[in-house]
């Protein structure tokens, strides 16, 4: 009996995973899609050059119509990073700006991989990590800097599932690190 119940649960979970998401997203025809490249220009955002990874990994891996982007941090135009522990060295506002800068860096990776940001069908999932003091509890407000820019650039296609968690430390003491999964045109 336990095996049957487990099997039914697995079937139910699988069915939920493959449900059509048209109830939660607006369906656009190609002509109606917000132009991500134009939105970037209107926002006054110039994408930086994508830097190669510093270890044995790649910036993005594509499987089918999903693109998995490695974690990126808030790298400034001069190559330095916004560093420090949120709640100690950085304010919530500064950390939110670091997350927004991280979004710009991830958009640069997307552009380098796809050649055109309009090939993005949907930002699917964002995993945001905040280098935070133990008592800091506003990780979602920090990662909003990333999420808000995705919606500013992609409109409804930029809305995504998300996790925003605190970390005891991040590589090289960066303030935030964010990875994402993106659905793209075939």
Keywords:
186 residues; alpha+beta; 60s Ribosomal Protein L30, Chain: A
Please tell me about this protein's structure.
The protein has 186 residues and is α+β, with helices and mostly antiparallel strands. It has a single domain (26-184), classed as 60s Ribosomal Protein L30, Chain: A (2-Layer Sandwich), CATH 3.30.1330.40. It is built from 4 helices and 5 strands; from the N terminus they run H-H-E-E-H-E-H-E-E. It has a 5-stranded mixed sheet, covered by helices on one side. The longest helix has 23 residues, at 92-114. The radius of gyration is 18 Å and the shape is globular. Mean pLDDT is 87; it is low at 4-11 and 13-31.
Give the arrangement of secondary structure elements.
Blueprint (H helix, E strand, L loop, with lengths): L1 H16 L18 H7 L17 E4 L2 E7 L19 H23 L5 E12 L7 H16 L6 E7 L8 E9 L2
Parallel strand pairs: 3-4
Antiparallel strand pairs: 1-2, 2-5, 3-5
CATH architecture: 2-Layer Sandwich
Spans of at least 5 consecutive residues whose pLDDT stays below 50 are 4-11, 13-31
Oligomer: single chain
Estimated structural class: alpha+beta
Summed up, the helix count is 4
Q: Name the helix and strand elements from N-terminus to C-terminus, one letter apiece.
A: HHEEHEHEE
* Shape call: globular
Provide the residue-averaged pLDDT: 87
The total domain count is 1
